[in-house]
Amino acid sequence: MDKTVIGIIGGSGVYQIEGLEDARWVEVETPWGEPSDKVLTGTLDGVPMVFLPRHGRGHVHSPTTVPYRANIDAMKRMGVTDIVSVSACGSFREEMAPGDFVIVDQFIDRTFAREKSFFGTGCVAHVSVAHPTCPRLGKACFDAAKVQGVTVHDGGTYLAMEGPQFSAAAESKMYRESWGADVIGMTNMPEAKLAREAEICYASVAMITDYDSWHPDHGSVDISDIIATLGANADAARGLVARLPGLLGGARAPCPHGCDRALEYAIMTAPDHRHPDVVARLDAVAGRVLGST
Ligand SMILES: CSC[C@H]1O[C@H](OP(=O)(O)O)[C@H](O)[C@@H]1O
Ligand SMILES: Nc1ncnc2[nH]cnc12
């Protein structure tokens, strides 16, 4: 048995969590640059927790400039085994209403201006993201939301757009009607792909703030409405997070879905062709398989 270390990546409106014992903000250095902010570490019900505000305290980083690689590397360096993302999202479904939560299980990645992998020239790897979220962790999030009294939907496809502008009405209609997306946001990609490369289980809790631009009764997305809904959502999200240690427990069996072994056969570059500088940068993310930890 390993030990569970829960990582929380807080999205818009979630810049801190409360109730951690021995809470302190810690600076983490990574080979991928500075993370979005310091991380808040502590324990809850005896389980170590690491919290990182995705946009930084004060909401400094845009969805495009969030340092996704540094954030996931920092989580790995802190020993995080399970990452839960909480994100503000628009909804493409009448029944997924503002205030509801959706446990995302699929993604359509439409982002195009971000670094999407830890690997590249000098050390090439291909991991599977056919099932990009961890069902075990997703179930814990679902159960936590239920106990918290939130209306929660089990499963949904998240369309990741580049932003920062919201979608045109025609795009919103296409994502919903032709592509079958359920929710839309700007940040879960490449975050989920990078978590998989780093062999960290990843689950995403979409907090619905609006109906994007398709709904005949709701017009276009309005940031002031989003901010109003965010306040209530963020409190419920913090409640959900506080229930996770009790549900996951401190002792951790290997992931039954293999998230924590994603790199086992993924690295293509022959050992004698791997660039030492590239390998050095992968010490935290891929040290288990590259032999550098
Ligand atoms: C505040 S609305 C747009 C903004 O909110 C979401 O961020 P996050 O996923 O970090 O909660 C969305 O993706 C946009 O970045
Ligand atoms: N409609 C929307 N589109 C993209 N990101 C969002 N975050 C919250 N609402 C959103």
From TrEMBL:
Entry keyword set: Glycosyltransferase, Purine salvage, Transferase
Pathway membership, UniProt: Amino-acid biosynthesis; L-methionine biosynthesis via salvage pathway; S-methyl-5-thio-alpha-D-ribose 1-phosphate from S-methyl-5'-thioadenosine (phosphorylase route): step 1/1
Recorded catalytic activity of this chain's protein: S-methyl-5'-thioadenosine + phosphate = 5-(methylsulfanyl)-alpha-D-ribose 1-phosphate + adenine
Gene Ontology molecular-function annotations: S-methyl-5-thioadenosine phosphorylase activity
Site (Important for substrate specificity): 167, 223
Domain Nucleoside phosphorylase: 6-243
Bilayer-crossing regions: none
GO annotation, biological process: L-methionine salvage from methylthioadenosine; purine ribonucleoside salvage
Binding annotation for phosphate: 12, 54-55, 87-88, 187
Tagged with keyword Ribosomal protein: no
InterPro entries: MTAP, Nucleoside_phosphorylase_d, Nucleoside_phosphorylase_sf
Coiled coil: none
Cellular compartments per GO CC: cytosol
EC number: 2.4.2.28
Binding site for substrate: 186, 210-212
PANTHER family xrefs: S-METHYL-5'-THIOADENOSINE PHOSPHORYLASE (PTHR42679)
Alphabetical list of NCBIfam families matching this protein: MTAP (TIGR01694), PRK08931.1 (NF006492)
Function summary: Catalyzes the reversible phosphorylation of S-methyl-5'-thioadenosine (MTA) to adenine and 5-methylthioribose-1-phosphate. Involved in the breakdown of MTA, a major by-product of polyamine biosynthesis. Responsible for the first step in the methionine salvage pathway after MTA has been generated from S-adenosylmethionine. Has broad substrate specificity with 6-aminopurine nucleosides as preferred substrates.
Family, similarity comment: Belongs to the PNP/MTAP phosphorylase family. MTAP subfamily.
Quaternary assembly: Homohexamer. Dimer of a homotrimer.
Record-given protein name: S-methyl-5'-thioadenosine phosphorylase
Taxonomic lineage of the native organism: Bacteria, Pseudomonadati, Pseudomonadota, Alphaproteobacteria, Rhodobacterales
